[in-house]
Amino acid sequence: MKPIIDFIKKFTDAEIAPIKKIHRSYYLVNKEIETLAEKIEENLVAEGLFLGEEKDKRFKPSVALLEIIAKTSDRKIFVDDKAEWLFLCGRDIFGKSITKANVKRGLVLVQNKRDENLGFAKITGDITKKDLVVVTNILDRGDFLRRERKKR
Questions:
Q1: In the listed set 49, 69, 89, which residue is the last one of a domain according to the structure?
Q2: What per-residue confidence (pLDDT) applies to 1?
Q3: How far apart are CA 37 and CA 47, in angstroms?
Q4: DSSP string of the chain, one letter each residue
Q5: Same domain flag for 56 and 34
Q6: Residue 73: which of 29, 137, 26, 120 has the closest Cα?
Q7: 124 closest CA partner among 84, 93, 150
Q8: Which of 3, 39, 72, 121 has the most CB atoms around its CB within 10 Å?
Q9: Residue 90 belongs to what domain range?
Q10: 84 with 136, same domain?
Q11: Confidence of residue 152 (pLDDT cuts 50, 70, 90)
Q12: What is the pTM assigned to this prediction?
C-alpha cells in the first residue's frame, strides 16, 4: 500500500479508504463490493474503482484517483481554455496560460477554470515566464483515447 499512499500524500493529507490491492493494481472498494467479492469463489482480477498500478517500480495513478485527490488538494494550477484543450491533447503548458497557481514547484494537479481536474503535471520552470513551457504534462484525461487510437 505504500506506493499509493505516498502518491496521495504528495497532494493532500486526506485519507482515501478503503483501498484494496490486487496484484499490482489498487482499487477503491466499498462494503457492498467487498461483500459481493467474498461470495464469488474465483480469484478476482479487479474489484471496485481502479485507482492506479505499480509499474516499473513506480506508482502510476488513474484519472479517477486524480479526480478524488483534486477534491481536497490545494496543489493546483488553473489554465485558460486554450491550454485546457492542448493539455488534454498531451501538450505541456506555457506560463502565459496559467490563470492561477497555488504552488510554484513540484507535482501539481492541472485544473480548468471550472476547477475540473484535467490531469497532473510537474512544474519545471518559473511560472511567471509567459513565453516558456513551465509545466510538463505527466498524465491527462486524453491519454486513454490516444492509447486506444494507437492500437488500431
A1: 69
A2: 84
A3: 8
A4: -HHHHHHHHTT-S-----EEEETTEEEE--HHHHHHHHH--SPPS--SEEEEEEETTEEEE-HHHHHHHHTT---EEEE-HHHHHHHHTT--EEGGGEEEES-SSEEEEEE-TT--EEEEEEE-S-TT-TTSEEEEEEEETTHHHHHHHHH-
A5: yes
A6: 120
A7: 93
A8: 121
A9: 74-148
A10: yes
A11: low
A12: 0.88
Q: Indicate the angle between helix axes 2-9 and 63-70, nearest 10 degrees.
A: 40
- Per-residue b or e along 44-56, where b marks 16 or more CB atoms closer than 10 Å to that residue's CB: eeebbbbbbbbee
**Plot region of 52 (φ>0 → left; ψ -120 to 50 → alpha; else → beta):** left
Of the three residues 69, 93, 112, the one that is the final residue of a domain is: 69
Q: Are residues 33 and 85 in the same domain?
A: no
63 with 80, same domain: the answer is: no
Count of structural domains, the chain: 2
Pairing of strands 106-111, 76-79: parallel
Residues 104 and 143 in one domain: yes
Mean pLDDT is lowest, of 25-39, 60-74, 88-102, 133-147, for 25-39
- Smallest CA-to-CA distance from 20 within 28, 31, 9 is with 28
